[in-house]
Amino acid sequence: MGELAQRLSAIDEQIADAARSAGRDPGEITRIVVTKFHPASLVRDLYALGVRDVGENRQQELTAKRAEIADDLAELRWHFIGQAQTKKAGVIRRGADAVHSVDRAKLADSLHRAAQSVDSADQRVLDVLLQVNLTQDEGRGGIEPDAAAELADHILTLPSLRLRGVMGVAPLDEPPAAAFERLRGVSDVVRLSKPNATWISAGMTGDFTEAIAAGATHLRIGSAITGPRPDRG
User: Fold this and answer.
1) Does the first or last residue of the chain, that is N or C, have fewer Cβ atoms within 10 Å of its Cβ?
2) pTM, two decimal places
């Protein structure tokens, strides 16, 4: 716990410094700790240190960890940040409090239908974000920026989903600041239809300073806090 607490504190200090440098209040930024490949026991340790938002990339891990922890950690919010398959929409919905990777109408429809199904145990309104493709590679996850407004309007017709904002991952072949500025532009367009869709999920360990400068409200930080991922052997 000692090393984990030190890493968490160090990242939080860096986030606060970056926010102040950008003229922002550190309190308006949510730090999501990504626990990919780590056991549920680490989530418990993080919770004891004050962490209330954790992220998972894989549906199987999200489902397993939430089942193991059950409702013991009542204030914990689970963010699904990986690519989602429509056939897994039901289990993702049951496991997540927020889904950051909605990039097509079919997926949004599947998440909505999962709330209407007879066997669904989850009737909550689900927070969702549009994942925007910030690269030139059409094969990457995310909707093209110029199609985001149309998808946002579609989500607004689905009452079991609450559109919160946008998410993006900076490309590896360009400075992240430019990509995050594009994401901020998409956010501005989405908010024309949904003014309170103010979340901008952007920034990981190597680029969260640039993300904060571009207006990110939610950062997704993994091994800089959790330490090296366990050997999957």
Assistant:
1) C
2) 0.94
